[in-house]
Design goal:
- The protein is of the alpha+beta class and 209 residues long.
- The chain has 11 helices and 5 strands.
- A 5-stranded antiparallel beta sheet has the order 2-1-3-5-4, covered by helices on one side.
- The radius of gyration is 18 Å and the shape is globular.
Length: 209
């Protein structure tokens, strides 16, 4: 998707932090126009709506898709994979989404947002276990290591990256080495370490209809 992403935040009625630092500035579109996009968006905020179960489930699914930048077909495939795993289907789904390479790069603090992380991976700036990859959707497993490619370290962005990333908190399921511009997956994240605003149960209900 290459269109405007701020309308996704306005549609969900909350910030999804899809544009990094801009979301914390006065330039944030959600702060300036906190109503749904479209012709009737502004007026709809004044009308009380009764939300059906289907609407609640759909909004939960759309929100998760937009947070992680995944299209419907791929999201459904992740759900089917999570069904085949042991444990809670909803938690399995969120763990799969968190295990994506672009998300891991973002969580390590090497990108300001998931879209930026996805772009850098696509341009081949990262290696996984010593091998260059340009697939943002690559799923990582415990023990996998992500490293900035040697040929990319001369770029101004990566020279300044340690100072930029130092202020970014890293979740406990990841290990980061700023000096080596690398990081590794220690384990799969627990539910408390994943965005609490996501409703995985509603997503499961949506696909179980």
């Amino acid at each position: 998707y290459r269109g405007p992403v701020c309308k996704f935040c306005r549609r969900e009625g909350e910030k999804l932090f899809l544009k990094g630092e801009r979301c914390f500035s006065p330039k944030c579109s959600f702060e300036r126009r906190g109503y749904a996009p479209g012709q009737h968006g502004k007026g709809s905020q004044f009308r009380r709506k009764r939300e059906s179960d289907y609407t609640r489930q759909l909004r939960a699914k759309q929100k998760a898709r937009r947070v992680y930048g995944v299209f419907e077909r791929q999201f459904r495939r992740y759900y089917e994979v999570s069904l085949g795993r042991r444990g809670l289907t909803g938690l399995n789904l969120l763990q799969i989404l968190e295990s994506r390479l672009d998300n891991v790069v973002f969580r390590l603090g090497y990108a300001d947002s998931r879209p930026q992380a996805r772009l850098m991976v696509t341009h081949g700036h990262f290696q996984v276990n010593g091998r260059r990859t340009d697939v943002p959707s690559m799923l990582l497993e415990p023990g996998d290591t992500v490293t900035v490619r040697e040929g990319s370290r001369s770029h101004t962005y990566f020279k300044e990256l340690p100072d930029f990333a130092e202020n970014k908190a890293v979740p406990a399921w990841l290990n980061r080495d700023l000096k080596g511009l690398s990081g590794s997956v220690i384990r799969l994240p627990e539910r408390s370490e994943i965005d609490g605003n996501l409703s995985e149960q509603s997503i499961v209900e949506y696909y179980s209809r």
